[in-house]
Design goal:
385 residues, alpha/beta, TIM Barrel, 8-stranded parallel β-barrel, 12 helices, 44% helix, binds flavin mononucleotide
Length: 385
């Protein structure tokens, strides 16, 4: 069973423990990151979207022109432009990138107040219904050579037609995030790939995987599964645990720096977050309660799933981080394969040193994952991927 390895492409180098410095929008860094992901064996990169960050579709377009192979998972919030227009924009990027490199990650959004910054006043429940209809509308445009009429609950258009259609027969894949029951129900109905936000203990993840698969089966579909994976690697296991402790110390220091910055200028924006907590993109998301439960349990779960960063991020009131895998590359690859064995084939891998980790992961982790995935048996009931 093949795997897809993903990274995160942002417009400045930095992480939760080393806030970005330098230009606010660092074009040479975008190029360098994109190049390094491409050269180090990553298949695809996620480019995030919210109501204050630079536009991910434009960043993807630039990154596509400086890479040859790397594919994109472009975060995209329905509700702001017509789906007919979005379909043409993504089809255009598909052609610019040479075909087969574009994926749309549908973002329904967690925080009502933050979405209102862009003028979206629907509730989360309404937004999920709209997101599903948006996907149907985009697919209607992508798949038709003749004019299409559409009359839905949120969108209505007549004689829509795109001169460009996706380059390859496989089309433009739809990725989908969100952990609430409606998010999962709608993913089962319309996503190509459902993305979990992070690792959970194996038993719990197995149940969640089964729940998505059961809903997809009920809808008569198969949905590929992906999860984000936070890793802390060391040359030895002891070195990895020492690094894990350093990460927690740094999370505390950065939280303090951010509190001071918030007191100085309340409306401040940092890459990936607004310091005003009412506007945090993750506020109102479903996963937080579950992470709090996980963080109050044992510090190490299963083989090496470490809840230390989850607990620290709750203590320091920063965006809550799912638990991380800590160990040597060999140990971490082995632990990732336990999730692969459940039927998860996409792994969005991140450490805490955005630029520096790419080469380490490309050298130490990704080849091991591909080797182990190549040797792994298909889980019972899985179709070819
Ligand atoms: C891999 C991944 C990437 C995400 N990227 C973004 C993003 O760029 N912007 C955003 O606002 N939300 C992002 N989300 C959040 C979700 O799409 C979703 O809107 C959020 O979890 C709220 O839904 P819930 O309450 O159903 O969990 C992402 C989620 C996942 C799993």
């Amino acid at each position: 069973m093949s795997i897809e390895v993903l990274g995160v492409l942002v417009h400045r180098n930095g992480s939760e423990i080393s806030p970005p410095s330098g230009p606010l929008f660092d074009v040479p860094m975008i190029q360098r990151l994109a190049h390094d992901f491409d050269a180090n064996g990553y298949d695809r990169v996620l480019i995030l979207q919210n109501s204050f960050a630079p536009d991910p579709l434009v960043i993807a377009t630039h990154a596509a022109t400086v890479t040859r192979r790397l594919a994109f998972m472009v975060a995209h919030r329905p509700g702001f432009i017509a789906p007919t227009m979005a379909a043409r924009m993504f089809a255009t990027l598909d052609h610019i990138s040479g075909g087969g490199r574009v994926g749309v990650h549908i973002i329904t959004g967690a925080n009502d107040t933050e979405l209102q910054c862009d003028g979206d006043f629907l509730t989360k429940e309404q937004r999920y219904h709209r997101s599903a209809e948006y996907v149907r509308a985009m697919r209607a445009v992508w798949s038709s050579t003749t004019p299409v009429d559409f009359n839905g609950e949120f969108y209505r258009f007549n004689k829509a037609l795109s001169e460009l259609r996706p380059v390859t027969a496989a089309g433009i894949p739809i990725y989908w995030g969100g952990a609430s029951p409606l998010a999962i129900e709608k993913a089962a109905e319309c996503a190509d790939v459902y993305a979990f936000g992070g690792l959970k203990p194996l038993d719990q993840m197995r149940q969640d995987v089964a729940a998505v698969q059961a809903l997809a089966m009920k809808a008569g579909r198969t949905v590929r599964l992906q999860t984000s994976v936070r890793v802390i690697l060391g040359e030895t296991e002891a070195a990895a645990w020492a690094e894990a402790r350093r990460v927690v110390d740094r999370l505390g220091e950065v939280a303090l720096e951010q509190r001071r910055a918030l007191e100085r200028d309340g409306g401040a924006v940092r890459t990936g977050m607004r310091l005003d907590k009412a506007l945090a993109t993750t506020k109102g998301g479903t996963g937080r309660g579950e992470l709090e439960r996980i963080a109050t349990g044992p510090e190490v779960l299963d083989k090496r799933l470490w809840t230390g960063i989850t607990r620290a991020s709750i203590d320091f009131a920063t965006p809550t981080l799912p638990p991380a895998l800590v160990g040597t590359a060999e140990q971490v690859a082995d632990a990732i394969m336990d999730y692969h064995a459940m039927g998860i084939t996409g792994f969005l891998i991140r450490g805490f040193d955005l630029l520096g980790d790419i080469e380490t992961h490309g050298r130490e982790l990704i080849p091991r994952l591909r080797m182990l995935a190549g040797a792994a048996k298909k889980p019972v009931g899985a179709k070819n991927s």
